[in-house]
Design a protein that fits this description.
By secondary structure, the protein is an alpha+beta fold. The protein folds into 4 domains: 106 residues, Immunoglobulin-like; 64 residues; 126 residues; 133 residues, Glutaredoxin (3-Layer(aba) Sandwich), CATH 3.40.30. It has 16 helices and 14 strands. It has a 6-stranded mixed β-sheet, with helices on one face. A hairpin with a 2-residue loop joins strand 2 and strand 3. Helix 13 packs parallel to helix 16. It starts with a helix and ends in a 6-residue tail after the last helix. 29% of the residues are buried.
């Protein structure tokens, strides 16, 4: 029996050894330091292996088939060195991972190709930017625009640089990881340059992002997963089109992403969660609302409960919908009302508009936003805007101490996320704000006191409404 167990363990061990590849290195400044190899899983990183370099800076790390993709070699200074884990043994030498000029790939064909392109492409980009700058001078400045030959030569050199870069990528060995990774990395890293210096390339760049399969395991393991999503929607936001056209483009892009995402529920949840938060942070609420409704209406996939609750607020509590009434039968506070005149429910308020704010004393952002709202309250009140604060506090002392300086209505039932009011409004984060008209129709979802004040200035100043 012992012999059989030992035999099985040996088989497993040697099977792993056969499947595993190694990265060996000699970095003279990293003697006796711990070296880690970190891989990527979508938005997260994980440690593949680690080792301590010897007194001469030699180390050896292993990786397995499931680690194929991109990884970072990391030493004590936390400045990483990118390596491709493509099923080949890799050998690297240098002084330190941060001393790029000293690094040399001695073994690993795909890593050698990556190294060559990583050195050549920035130089081409710098030269191309210089030629673009000169082309503008020779085209727009009357002192130089007469030099037609010079203009033609500048344009030819631009074409040559682009063609040389494209030829390098086109000649990469078909089917290799590096043949996918380098064009994708170029697409992502060139976004800012394209937007600022080569706007004529924006449509083609957006088209390339739109064709990308965001469930592709190569992307998931590349370290580009987050950057690809951020760069894509940053470019859409900064493509130079009017904001209405930007939102149309974002809807097209979300539709294109969903073609692949609905086939992979794990990545659908991960990407939707991240993209929704990204759009919210950039105040791109039309796009985040479209994403939420698109995902919630997709019956062929399952959304995890936390994400579903977060998205549901945009389907149920979207602009134009009627907000639920609120009974003020819990603890309440407002210097402008006494126990007799305090309204019994939200619908009894006589104001033309009501800003409903959900927050709490334990919410760091609320500690900024609520005082800012209080500062503007009397200005808004003069424009017939009432403010109602619904607290998610669980302590009467904390609630009372927090709201006693605020001039607006404040209520709390001490149930936190289990409050019926919170549930009815599908609140998933604090602060959350809804601007309602006198019929309780949602007309705006402000993300800050500043945005609310801008709305008041634009819509209510000088008797506009």
């Amino acid at each position: 029996m012992k012999f059989k167990i030992i035999s099985i363990l040996l088989c497993v061990f040697f099977s792993y050894e056969l499947d595993a590849q190694s990265i060996t290195g000699r970095f003279t400044q990293l003697a006796m330091q711990e070296i880690k190899l970190e891989g990527f899983n979508g938005l997260k990183t994980y440690v593949i292996s680690n080792a301590t370099a010897d007194e001469k800076g030699n180390f050896k790390l292993s990786y397995a088939k499931e680690d194929y993709g991109v990884a970072y070699l990391i030493s004590a200074d936390k400045k990483p060195l990118l390596v491709l884990l493509t099923g080949e043994d890799v050998e690297i030498t240098g002084e330190a991972f941060s001393a790029v000029e000293t690094i040399h790939i001695k073994k690993g064909k795909e890593n050698l190709l990556f190294e060559n392109y990583a050195k050549q492409h920035p130089r081409r980009e710098q030269s191309l930017s210089a030629w673009i700058y000169l082309e503008k001078i020779y085209t727009l400045d009357s002192l130089f625009s007469v030099q037609k030959t010079a203009v033609k030569n500048i344009q030819l050199e631009k074409q040559r640089i682009k063609a040389e870069d494209a030829a390098f990528l086109a000649n990469l060995p078909k089917g290799t990881y590096v043949s996918w990774f380098l064009p994708t990395r170029k697409l992502v890293s060139d976004v800012a340059t394209v937007a600022q210096y080569r706007p004529e390339e924006i449509p083609a760049t957006i088209a390339a992002f739109r064709k990308m399969d965001y469930t592709d395991q190569r992307l998931y393991k590349s370290g580009l997963f987050k950057d690809a999503i951020e760069s894509y929607f940053w470019l859409l936001e900064n493509c130079g089109k009017p904001i209405d056209s930007v939102f149309i483009e974002m809807k097209f892009s979300i539709d294109a992403m969903m073609v692949y995402l609905i086939k992979d529920e794990k990545k659908l949840n991960e990407i939707t969660d991240y993209l929704f938060d990204l759009l919210e942070r950039h105040s791109l609420f039309q796009a985040s609302e479209y994403l939420a409704i698109k995902v919630l209406n997709e019956t062929s996939c399952t959304i995890n409960s936390d994400l579903a609750k977060q998205l549901e607020t945009y389907r149920t509590m979207k602009k134009g919908n009627l907000a639920p009434d609120i009974l003020f039968n819990s603890d309440k506070f407002a210097p402008t009302y006494d126990s007799v005149t305090f309204p019994k429910k939200l619908s009894e308020l006589k104001s033309k508009y009501t800003l409903l704010v959900f927050g709490a004393s334990w919410c760091p952002k609320c500690l900024e936003e609520l005082p800012a709202i209080a500062k503007q309250y009397y200005k808004w009140k003069a424009k017939d805007v009432e403010v109602v604060f619904v607290s998610l506090d669980e302590s009467k002392v904390l609630f009372t101490n927090f709201v006693k300086i605020f001039p607006f209505i404040s209520v709390c039932d001490y149930q936190k996320w289990n409050s019926d009011i919170v549930k009815n409004y599908y609140v998933f984060a604090t602060p959350t704000m809804f601007l309602l008209d006198h019929k309780r129709e949602i007309i705006l979802r402000p993300n800050s006191a500043e945005q609310m004040d801008a709305w008041v200035n634009w819509n209510l100043e000088a008797g506009k409404k």
